[in-house]
Design brief:
A hairpin with a 4-residue loop joins β6 and β7. It is globular and about 55 Å long. α5 crosses α8, α5 packs across α9 and α12 packs across α13. The protein has 399 residues and is α/β, with parallel strands linked by helices. The chain has three domains: 79 residues, NAD(P)-binding Rossmann-like Domain (Rossmann fold, 3-Layer(aba) Sandwich), CATH 3.40.50; 154 residues, UDP-N-acetylmuramoyl-L-alanine:D-glutamate ligase, CATH 3.40.1190.10; 138 residues, Protein-Tyrosine Phosphatase, Chain A. The two termini are 36 Å apart.
Length: 399
C-alpha cells in the first residue's frame, strides 16, 4: 500500500489485516496514523522506494497522491502486480457488504463516526471506515462481524461513484475541490449520479427535524451531523428504541483534528486543532468557539490547503478568517499542485484586513510555534487546515 499513512489507506490496511491478509506499506513521513498502524502490527516503511514492494505481492493499492511513475508502482508494473487506487479497492470491499455511505462537503467524517458508534452501541456490529481517528476506538477503523459496512465516501475525482450503497447519506453540497470540479453544476451532477446508484438517499430535508440529545462535541454543525446519523440509524434498524440512539450520540467524544482539545500553551492560552480547510468550515468553527468560550479571543493559525482552493474561494476565505479576532496565515500547502504565484498567504492576509479582520502572514511553522507560545489565558487558539499545521501546535505545547 503506497501512501499507507493516508487516513483512508490506513483504514483499508487495517481491514485487510483483520481479514488475515499480509499487509505492508510505505509513506513519505511518520505521523500519528503510521504510528497507530505499527502498534496494530502493520509493517510500515518510511520512504518510498522500489524494493518496498514484495515480489510475491498480489495487489498494490495506491493513494491519490501517488503518481504512476512512483518507484513502487513502476516495480509493480514490471512484476505484473495488479494495481488499484484506494477507492477502487474500497469499492470492491463494499460490493460484498450492506453498505451505508456518507458523503457531503462538510460533516461526513463526524457523521460516519457517529453512525458507526450508534450501530455498535446498538449491538449491530458493523465494520466502519472513517476519515479520522475516532476517540473511542483509537483508530479510523472498526472491525465488525455483521455484513453492515459504514464508510465515508469522498466526492473528489468522483471517488464516491465506486459505491452502489444500500443507503447514501448526503450531509450538504457546497463547491469544493475546485482543481477537479470547475463549477457547482459539475459537483451537483456528480452527486446526482451518486444518488442514482444508491438504494435509499437521506438528505437534509429528511433529517432536519430529527430530535437529538445534548452533545459533548460543540457547534450547531455537529447537531446537524447527529441528526443525519440518527436518521440513517433509524432507517437501518427501525426496531431499535430511540433512547438507544440518543444515549450513544450523547456520549460521542469526537475524532482527531475535529475541534480537538490539545492542551494549555506556555502563555496560558488554550489550544485546539481543527481540520477546517473550507471557508464555511472555518466560519462555523469560529462561531462554535465563540458559543463555547464567550468573552475569549479566538485566534487562528490557518494553513491554506491547495493553491486552487485558496485562489477559487479567495474572497470567501478572507471573509471567514475575518470572523476571528486574529488570524495568522501560513504559506499555502501545495500538496499535489505546482507552485502558483497568483495566490499567497500575504495576499490572503491583506484581503482579511481589507474586510475588517486582523490577519498576519507567517513565514513557517517555527514562527507559528513562537507566536502560539505568547498567547495569554484570555485566548482560545486553533491550528487549522488540512495539512500538517497540527505539528506546530504540538511543538508549541512542549515549550
Amino acid at each position: 500500500m503506497v501512501g499507507i499513512g493516508g487516513i483512508g489507506m490506513s483504514a483499508l490496511a487495517q481491514y485487510y489485516a483483520h481479514e488475515g491478509v499480509s499487509v505492508s506499506g510505505s509513506d513519505r513521513e511518520e505521523s500519528p496514523v503510521t504510528s497507530m498502524l505499527g502498534e496494530k502490527g502493520v509493517a510500515v516503511v518510511i520512504g518510498q522506494k522500489a524494493e518496498n514492494v514484495p515480489a510475491d505481492a498480489q495487489l498494490l493499492v495506491y493513494s491519490d497522491a501517488v503518481p504512476a511513475d512512483n518507484q513502487e508502482r513502476v516495480r509493480a508494473t514490471t512484476l505484473g502486480i495488479t494495481q488499484q487506487s484506494y477507492f477502487e479497492a474500497l469499492g470492491d470491499v463494499a460490493k460484498t457488504k450492506r453498505t451505508i455511505a456518507i458523503a457531503g462537503t462538510h460533516g461526513k467524517t463526524t457523521t460516519t463516526a457517529m453512525l458507526g458508534k450508534m450501530l455498535i452501541d446498538a449491538g449491530l456490529d458493523p465494520t466502519v471506515v472513517v476519515g479520522s481517528i475516532v476517540t473511542e476506538w483509537g483508530s479510523n477503523f472498526k472491525a465488525g462481524k455483521s455484513n453492515l459496512f459504514v464508510v465515508e465516501a469522498c466526492e473528489y475525482r468522483n471517488h464516491f461513484l465506486t459505491f452502489s450503497p444500500e443507503v447514501l447519506v448526503i450531509t450538504n453540497i457546497e463547491l469544493d475541490h475546485t482543481d477537479f470540479f470547475k463549477s457547482i453544476d459539475e459537483l451537483t451532477a456528480a452527486f446526482d449520479e451518486a444518488r442514482s446508484k444508491a438504494g435509499t438517499v437521506i438528505e437534509a430535508s429528511l433529517y432536519k427535524n430529527e430530535q437529538v440529545p445534548e452533545l459533548l462535541v460543540s457547534g450547531e454543525f455537529n447537531k446537524e451531523n447527529a441528526r443525519a446519523a440518527k436518521a440513517a440509524a433509524k432507517l437501518i434498524a427501525p426496531d431499535v428504541p430511540a433512547e438507544v440512539w440518543d444515549h450513544s450520540l450523547a456520549s460521542y467524544k469526537g475524532t482527531w483534528r475535529r475541534f480537538e482539545y490539545k492542551g494549555e500553551l506556555a502563555g496560558g492560552a488554550t489550544l485546539y486543532d481543527d481540520y477546517a480547510h473550507h471557508p464555511t468550515a472555518i466560519a462555523r468553527t469560529v462561531s462554535a468557539a465563540r458559543e463555547k468560550f464567550p468573552g475569549k479571543k479566538i485566534v487562528l493559525f490557518f494553513h491554506p490547503h491547495l493553491y486552487s482552493r485558496t485562489r477559487d474561494l479567495f474572497d470567501e476565505f478572507a471573509a471567514a478568517l475575518a470572523t476571528s479576532d486574529k488570524s495568522y496565515i501560513l504559506p499555502v500547502y501545495a500538496a499535489r499542485e505546482p507552485h502558483d504565484p497568483s495566490v499567497s498567504n500575504k495576499m490572503l492576509a491583506n484581503s482579511v484586513n481589507a474586510k475588517g479582520g486582523h490577519a498576519q502572514p507567517v513565514v513557517d511553522f517555527a514562527e507559528a510555534e513562537k507566536l502560539l507560545s505568547t498567547l495569554d489565558a484570555d485566548t482560545v487558539s486553533f491550528t487549522m487546515g488540512a495539512g500538517d499545521i497540527y505539528k506546530a501546535g504540538e511543538q508549541a505545547l512542549k515549550q
